[in-house]
Amino acid sequence: MIRSLRPLLAALLLPLAALAQTPKTYSSSDILLGLKKLNVLGSVLYIAAHPDDENTRLIAYMANERLLETGYLSCTRGDGGQNLIGPELREGLGVIRTQELLAARRTDGGQQFFTRANDFGFSKTPEETFRIWDKEQVLADMVWVIRQRRPDVLITRFPTDGRGGHGHHTASAILAAEAFVAAGDPKRFPEQLKYVQAWQPKRLFWNTGSFFVKPGEDMAGYLKLDAGGYNPLLGQSYGEIAARSRSNHRSQGFGSAAQRGEALEYFQQLKGEKAAKDPFDGIDITWNRTKEGAALSKLIQEVIRKYDPNKPSASIPALMAIREDLWERASDGKDPLAQLKLKQADKLLQACLGLYVEATADAPLIAAGQPVAITISALNRSQHKVALQGVSYMGFEFKPGVESAKAAPAQPLTADKIVSTTATLDIGEASISQPYWLREPGSPGMYKLPKEVLGGRDGERGYKILFNQPELMGQPENPSYPYCRVRMEVESPGQARPFDLYMEVPVQYKHTDPVLGELYQPLAVVPPVMVNLPPARSYVFADNQPKTVPVTLRAGRAGVSGNLALALPTGWKSEPATVPFILANKDQELTVNFQVQPSAGAASGHSELRATATVEGQKYSRGIQPIVYPHIPTQYLFPEAVAPLVKLDLKRRGQNVAYLMGAGDEVPDALRQIGYTVTLIEPQDLTAARLKTFDALVVGIRAYNTVDRLKTQQPEILKYIEGGGNVIVQYAVARGTVMPEIGPYPMKLSNDRVTVEDAPVTFLKPKHALLNYPNKITEQDFKGWVQEQGLYYPSSWDPKYQTVISSADPGEKAKESAILVADYGKGHYIYTGLSLFRELPAGVPGAFRLITNMISYGKEPAQ
Questions:
Q1: Where would I find the H helices in 465-518?
Q2: Interatomic CA distance for residues 682 and 680, integer angstroms
Q3: Do residues 794 and 831 lie in contact, with contact meaning Cβ atoms separated by under 8 Å?
Q4: Which residues form the Alpha-galactosidase NEW3 domain (predicted)?
Q5: How distant is the alpha carbon of residue 137 from its chain centre?
Q6: pTM (global) more than 0.70
Q7: Least reliable range by pLDDT among 98-102, 629-633, 661-665
Q8: In a 3-state reduction of DSSP, which class is residue 563?
Q9: Are 743 and 802 a contacting pair, CB within 8 Å?
Q10: CA–CA distance, 115 with 476 (Å, rounded to integer)
Q11: Phi then psi for 846, rounded to 5 degrees?
Q12: How many whole angstroms separate alpha carbon 439 and alpha carbon 461?
């Protein structure tokens, strides 16, 4: 009897259907490529440190030319980088870059995996990296993915000798070499063997290239292959696919031009049996590597030979026979490769039938225990007989009076006619849709896996659906819950009964954007009430005057009521102390303004406030943060309603500040917190006459990389300075500035930085006005910084620039260009690579004192 795939999924531990994607459709060429891939059993895993580190051309070549199971294991999610497309940093940026990697893999045909390592920012050495990462835990995650995926070959992007330039890069290569050995050793991480078996890859390579080669180095001993070929089924070369894949990394500004023609890739073998000409030399990647595999391979070859691109459904009877063979191989749950191929065979059957199935909800957000209407739409685009037999709603509970929907009779799917079935259900006891790696507090170097995540209840059986750590480890995103399990009956020639085909379909919210068209996003499970503070805002008190703290409540369900309060440190008070609230309707919002102020006895320095809503005795302190960009599915974060609370001694001069946004940051709001009137100025308004009305112009991060208009407005900015204006320019990336000179005098930007946040600072000119007026800057002002002291320091500069401070990472020469100050005409120009864009939103007191002195520069009393 032909059987269902579902009982094997728990043993498989493979990624379930990706969240919030347009349901995939398959062309005839896609199906033929999939049939060919069904007959290839080899596997390769590419390993590096960050999103964008992967070689998308090699991944596209391995997945689509060699037809290998191809994965990319990124140690981190890129949380510590900068964001070129918006204000999200840290956890929000990590979510964006995770989705960008998934979009890249959908383009190039690979699979995506991660470890728990946190991208804590730039690191210069692997030793520094391993002081912050839990090396053994990252290694365990890497070994887990290897044991689960069973790759024949591992390939690293970076060498172990430091030429990769980033400590994370080198660390990823060191870990890959250790994981190559550890994965095959049952004494290493034996707790994993409850779920997977030890696995020894055959070889480990370093994928080198011209950017790593030392001058005069002989590359004749390296293996090489041409990854620049053309795939007629896809209508693209692998260089073209790679460019589209890499261009998904929009938050990093990695839009790439397509490459066509020969493209040599070089490999240095590091471990394993020596390969002569090719990474897979001597490795059997056919079904012959399995017991009685030759007969199955012959069946697949026959399907490929007879495949009719004008009528893919003609391949269904033969595919059913192949699937029956795969089932027998996979039924004991001990052969992950057979299980993977079984899943692929089911997708090919769906594709050959032209089956299109989607499950949509009538709202994008729903609270646990609340009703939601679900519509299942199914379409058969072949002449083959198919019937919609039934739907199981996983993660839902049926509402009273609609149980009959579970027992609906089979509905024939007539060619090209949509059949729909609906049900109104309650979300079960599901956890909120927070990304699993952000559910529990981690450390600066590591995310923490929850012991389990509650996916809700099975609507048919009533049992709880729990995901434990092995089901989460290495996965790029949350499992697709809630989802629907759709059972199709497919005519099976020669069989006494129809073939049962099961499809697992994530429930999504579908809507139509007037510009972008039809869009899908995840059905997100939310708390009954969400508590939102303004994003990335710190509350800074330079005196004891009260400040308004707005707290916005949003109802996750109708009829939610309770009390809202702020938790404050000793010596602080809020007015009112507690506010009762009633939110009658789902999605209703209410903003409550608290007046917060310190008393005379409140301690100076950094603390925090927390907003908490109490509903039916339960406390809620998470808000909701949508992340919406057109190139990735909409994501939701549920951040704690916590904000930095800072009391400091601060004096300032001037009032009106013009701010030119660059890649996006939260500095303008931070300046408003300390009393400045900040105007966001448009590039075309950067004229000397307009700027004359401001006490200073502050230029946002990477503006000289992203604002093309600056190259035409720069003369006006210089004219403003010359007439007595004050300009503060935050860092620009060395590569890709819109003009060669960004200051009044020459300076050369570089990648130099100081990564240790609390690196000791030396005052080169202790009496310089920038360090003394209106605030006396001391070593204490450089304490408590977060994620790098500074970045992209100039490596050389005109003598007309003055240096005022220096610092260095351990063992390195001091860098003096964190702040460069120049007089120009009657005015002043300041370039700073200090990471103020991170420190100000984090409420670091010294950062506020420094930026205030920069804005006040030139306004000190005459001596």
A1: 469-472
A2: 7
A3: yes
A4: 561-615
A5: 20
A6: yes
A7: 661-665
A8: strand
A9: no
A10: 9
A11: -60, -30
A12: 27
